[in-house]
Amino acid sequence: MSTDSLGRRFNILLVCDSYPPVLGGSEIEAQRVSRALILRGHRVRVLCAGGPPMPSQQEWVDPFGVPVSILTRRSSGRWKDVMFAIQVARIIRRERQNSNVIYFLMQGLHVATGFPVARLLRKSIVMKISGSGVIPLMQRSLIGRLELRWIRKWAARLLVLNNGMVEEAISHGFSRAQLTLMPNPVDIDEFEPGPPGEAAQWRVDHGVPANAVVVIYVGRLSAEKGLYELLRGFTHAARSAPDLFLVLVGDGPLRAELESYAGGLTPGSQCIRFAGRAPLSEVVRWLQASDIFALTSPSEGFSCALLEAMAVGVAPVVSNIPANLQLVNPDEQGLVVPYDDDRCVGEAFLRLSRDPALRRRLGESARRRVMENFATNRVIELYEKLFEDVVDRKDLQ
Known about the structure:
This protein is an alpha/beta fold. Helices cover 45% and strands 16% of the residues. It has 16 helices and 14 strands. The chain has helices at residues 3-6, 25-39, 78-94, 109-120, 134-139, 142-154, 163-171, 196-205, 227-240, 255-263, 280-288, 304-312, 322-325, 342-353, 356-373, 376-391, and strands spanning 11-15, 43-48, 59-61, 67-70, 101-104, 124-128, 157-160, 179-181, 213-218, 244-249, 272-276, 292-295, 315-319, 335-337. It has an eight-stranded mixed β-sheet with strand order 3-4-2-1-5-6-7-8, sandwiched between helices.
C-alpha cells in the first residue's frame, strides 16, 4: 500500500527521548521510520532531547532530511527529563494546526505531560514501548503508573515488538484490541551481502586472520546483553576450533570489565577483538566480513542488530527468547540456544564453524525472511495503515 492508494498524507510529531547520532535500537528506528515516511510524502517532525553527541542548535535537519527539534541542552539527569517533558507539551500545543498524529516512540516523563495535551487537542495518539520488561518497570513508580494510566485511556494504539510483550501488556490492564505488533525496519539495500573481495580486504585492514571463522556481536556492552556468557561460550568453542575469532562492535559501561575478563580466558585476547563504537557504514562492513552473528542476551525487544545481520546474510546464533524467536526459526534462519547456558552457546559456534554449507543455508534463509517481512517499505506500509485507522477513529471527533 502506498500513500497514493490511501489518498492522504499524515502530519506526524514523533517524540523520542534520544535520536541519532545517539546509537541504539529505538534511535535508529526513529530515524529510519521518519526518513521513510517523508520519502513517501508524509510530514514528520522529530522532538528529542539534546546534549552530546547531538548538535548544539535547536532546529536541525539530519543527514537524511528529517527535521529535528532538540528541546534540551542536556542528555541525561532528572532536570533534563523535566525540561524535556515541559517542552514536549508546549510543542504539541504550538503545532496543533500542523499535526494529526502524535507518535511517542519512547516512554518517559514526557508521556505524563504530552498525553493530556494531545488528548485535549483531540489528536490521534500512538505509543510504542521499546522492549520487554518496560511495562513492569513503569508499574513500580508513581510517575510510571500515571503514564500507564494515560496510555491505557488515550493511546489509540500501543505498539509492541513481540508476543511476549503482548502478554505483558494484557497482564497490566491493556486490551488486546489496543495492541499492535509493529516490527522495526531495515534497509535491505544498505544491509546486504558484500563482495567477497571487499570482505577479505576489510579483514586484512583490521587485523583479522584471513582464514578465521568470525563470530560477531554488535550492540551495547552492558549487563543486560549476557556478554559474559557469550565470552565463555566462545572460549569453549575456540578450544576445539582455533580458527574461531570473536569481534565485539560497540561500547558501553562494561567494556573495561569485559576486556579484562576476556584477557584472562584461554584462549582469550589473541582471538577476541573489541572493535569499539562504529558508525553504521562500518557496522555493515564488519557484518559482511563475518560468518556468525551472536545475540545471546536474556531479554530483547526487537533487535535492530539481529535484523541487520540477517539482512546481510550472516548465520545467527540467538537466545531462546520471544524477541529472537519471531525472527529466527530454529535450524531454519539460525541456531537457537538457552541464554544462560554458555556450553550450548559454544556448541552452536562449534557446529557452525565446522559446517560452511550450514552457515550459507542459514544466512540465505535469514536474508529472505528479512526481505519478505521487515524491509523498510513493508514496515512503512503497516505504519500508513495504522495512521489511517487511528485518524479515522470516531471517538476523537
